[in-house]
Input
Amino acid sequence: MRPANEAILVIDVQNDFCPGGHLAVAGGDEIVAPINALMPEFPVRVLTQDWHPAGHSSFAASHPGKAPFEMIEMPYGPQVLWPDHCIQGSEGAAFHGGLATDPGDLIIRKGFRSAIDSYSAFFENDHETPTGLEGYLRSRGVDTVTLVGLATDYCVNYSALDAAKLGFKVRVIESLTRAIDLEGSLAQARADMQAAGVELA
Output
């Protein structure tokens, strides 16, 4: 067991991000068993869940004439338009069937505000609206977080950068993540994480 100040954050291991899902990440299901094996080592275990209302503003279908993976400007900045995914209560939004969710102390749902997307486990994409995760971790005495899950270059990356900005010691286990890699987004994410002091393990 790792020290009491360490937490694991299991990011968005949901059906829609796994093969066969609406926003499938190649090999997304390959990390499930090793994540299950790793979770018991950590005294604090948090799982995040993308949880969008139907017609979310980040969906390409909400913008007539736009296609998935196009970029638009939102009031909070640039936004990738996604295929409809992780709609509240849908099979796609459910955790991968093989993922051990019972060991989780806390499930953080994000992206439930229809006007703003939320990649990070800590903040909405305006970088201001908190999810409450920071307060939870501080109240549990956590100062060190290890991140695994989907996708490396979006929700894992944003969560790691925010954790580092908040003063946590951050490690990402790259072998337990998988990337979407849109136009070099993985290389950019790795560079950004390293620049922020995130350990890529």
